[in-house]
Design brief:
119 residues, three-stranded antiparallel beta sheet
Length: 119
């Protein structure tokens, strides 16, 4: 999957379930930066070897979301586990060649990356 498409896929989940939304800016076609309301930013970069684009980006976006939520005084858990809310975030992983969000406690797949339901 190309970097730009992978970014769109992961950001779909952020828009669906994160209380803090980023100001998204492209960096001269090289990458993308997510800016939080507090003025902090985090760049999104492609995986060094070009593989696992969604998984690599999901980890970066999750880091941004946790920091942004904490900065706003909200529960710093993203994405929320529907089975265990406010206890732990879902974990990005690959199962049968598909990037998915998984409950780390139960090991169950919750959704494909890019397909989290809107809360």
């Amino acid at each position: 999957m190309e970097f730009a498409e992978a970014v769109k896929t992961v950001l779909r989940d952020l828009r669906a379930q994160c209380a803090v939304q980023p100001d998204i800016r492209s960096d001269d076609g090289i990458g993308v930066t997510l800016w939080a309301p507090d003025g902090s930013g985090q760049g999104l970069t492609p995986h060094p070897d070009g593989t696992a684009a969604e998984l690599h980006l999901a980890d970066q976006v999750q880091d941004w979301a946790v920091e942004a939520l904490w900065s706003e005084g909200a529960s710093a858990v993203w994405p929320q586990c529907p089975t265990d809310p406010d206890t732990h975030p879902l974990t990005a992983t690959v199962r049968t060649d598909t990037a998915v969000w998984v409950c780390p406690k139960r090991g169950t797949t919750v959704a494909r990356i890019g397909e989290l339901e809107t809360q």
